[in-house]
Amino acid sequence: MSLAARLAALGTATIGEVASEARAIDLPLRALAPAAMAGPAITVRCRPGDNLALHRAIAAATAGDVLVVDYGGSVASGPFGEIMALACQLRGIAGMVIDGSVRDSTRIAALGFPVFCRGLNIRGTTKQDRGDVGAPVTLGGMLVRQGDFVIADADAIIVLPAGQAEAAATAGEARVAREDAMMDRLRAGETTLQILGLNEGDER
């Protein structure tokens, strides 16, 4: 299993517990449909109202990349839709996080392409401003650099420095094994107080 697949399977809650370097993007970004994804970031800065930089980033991305798009928090237009989602899928892009809106939400969800966005807007955009592809971007006050690992699911969107991703996956798998053993003990009749060694007198 690839590193990205391991991280996606573990989920943000587990990675957030075991990786001290994990940082959550503190923005109201939600998945268009139930989805989990992980992969190295390809960073994009778009001028609100223009999506040329997104087209450039899709062409530059490699399989497994996650588009991380600074759209300035604007929800006044939808710079990404079904056609671009299909283009991403065909290039093997793992998903997208955008501090902005998208369009064609039902069709993107039907494609199964993971998108985490601020909102929806059908208003179109121009294609004039080249923006930035590959430069650091800031989402929710957090700096994201090209190559940082992005893990996203229904709980959160977190970012890890690339050099920490393998260690986080290994630690996360160890935590899952411990939690599986705890759940086996619960099914066998023990309480969480007993399993965790807490004071039985506190039980109500």
Automatic annotation (TrEMBL):
It comes from the Bacteria. InterPro entries: RraA/RraA-like, RraA/RraA-like_sf. Gene3D superfamilies: Ribonuclease E inhibitor RraA/RraA-like. Pfam families: RraA-like (PF03737). Its cofactor is a divalent metal cation. This is Putative 4-hydroxy-4-methyl-2-oxoglutarate aldolase. It comes from Mesorhizobium marinum.
